[in-house]
């Protein structure tokens, strides 16, 4: 993948340096947009109006992320309010295991910020419920849903990521064992295609179904492998993550290096969340590799969002290359994650 990495680095570098990186204060932009996200927050429900249950977990994660890098941001009261209102329904609110995975990662992030064991216990509870979805249908992996209709990439990537994150925070060997078991299955499942990108899932015969290469499926695996590398003290996982990241950047960016989904209009509230998840996890990979091309990718996208995809109230839309159309909590939090990702690596 070295040739691919060099190609994309060259492409991104041409654009970045022509724009002037130093003109962009990524942290300030992320802070302003974090405040704007609160426009959709519902104090009574603890989630965000106009978007879904799992999307609200990503909104919470974004707020926790900005607080983690910005001394001027404090969303502790929001985290606590959301948790208290919904604390009895984490494993019953949804029939989808991936929804549980998003919330587990959100509460692990909240734990990292606050060291509040209640958040970590919630993540462990969610993981235990996800583990009930392990199946022998395709020789392993977890189901996407509790009705057992589909084995797909995102549920299994999240299961791996939550296990690896918990392994590092509890040092309970069961989580590391689960993470290794999941990765060994996932790597051999066929969902990673010949181009090193990841398709959506498996068909009825447990073969790659050839469905869309969504950006979030390329993203969650990166953070999962970074955590697994740290938990197992095995750097080989980082090399695999870099191959997947660069393959995705090659396939999903335009000529200026801006990330796109294959469908960016009329695709519903799930797809509008995906790209920010990729960028958030690219930032995690960058911290483990110091790969300058990854940093430039993050900066290119943050610059384009701020220049081309926001309104006068710093609300962020779906198409990062512009023009700005409209925003909701999903499009906004996704683009916000890209701003936070660029801010988080700016001085590293």
Automatic annotation (TrEMBL):
It holds the Pfam family Glyco_hydro_76. Keywords: Hydrolase, Signal. Residues 1-23 form the signal peptide. GO terms for biological process: carbohydrate metabolic process. Gene3D superfamilies: 1.50.10.20. The keyword Signal applies. PANTHER family: ENDO MANNANASE, GH76 FAMILY (EUROFUNG) (PTHR47791:SF1), MEIOTICALLY UP-REGULATED GENE 191 PROTEIN (PTHR47791). This is Glycoside hydrolase family 76 protein.
């Amino acid at each position: 993948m070295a040739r691919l990495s060099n190609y994309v680095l060259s492409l991104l570098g041409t654009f970045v340096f022509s724009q002037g990186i130093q003109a962009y204060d990524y942290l300030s932009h992320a802070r302003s947009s974090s405040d704007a996200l609160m426009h959709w927050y519902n104090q009574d429900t603890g989630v965000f109006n106009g978007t879904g249950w799992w999307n609200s977990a990503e909104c919470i994660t974004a707020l926790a992320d900005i607080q983690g890098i910005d001394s001027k941001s404090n969303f502790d009261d929001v985290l606590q309010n959301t948790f208290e209102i919904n604390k009895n329904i984490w494993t019953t609110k949804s029939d989808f295991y991936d929804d549980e995975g998003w919330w587990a990662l959100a509460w692990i992030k909240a734990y990292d910020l606050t060291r509040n064991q209640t958040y970590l216990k919630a993540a462990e509870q969610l993981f235990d419920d996800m583990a009930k979805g392990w199946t022998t249908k395709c020789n392993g992996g977890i189901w996407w849903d509790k009705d057992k209709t589909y084995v797909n990439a995102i549920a299994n990537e999240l299961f791996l990521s939550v296990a690896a994150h918990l392994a590092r925070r509890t040092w309970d060997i069961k989580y590391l064992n689960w993470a290794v078991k999941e990765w060994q299955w996932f790597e051999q499942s066929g969902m990673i295609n010949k181009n090193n990108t990841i398709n959506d899932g498996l068909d009825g015969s447990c073969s790659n179904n050839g469905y869309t290469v969504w950006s979030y499926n390329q993203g969650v695996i990166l953070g999962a492998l970074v955590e697994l590398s740290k938990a197992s003290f095995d750097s080989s996982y980082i090399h695999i993550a870099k191959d997947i990241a660069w393959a995705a950047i090659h396939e999903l960016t335009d000529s200026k290096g801006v990330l796109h989904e294959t469908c960016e209009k009329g695709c519903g509230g799930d797809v509008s969340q995906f790209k920010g998840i990729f960028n958030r996890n690219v930032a995690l990979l960058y911290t483990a590799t110091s790969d300058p091309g990854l940093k430039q990718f993050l900066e290119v996208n943050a610059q384009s969002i701020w220049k081309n995809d926001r309104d006068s109230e710093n609300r962020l839309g779906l198409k990062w290359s512009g023009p700005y159309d409209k925003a909701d909590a999903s499009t906004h939090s996704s683009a916000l994650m890209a701003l936070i990702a660029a801010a988080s690596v700016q001085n590293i």
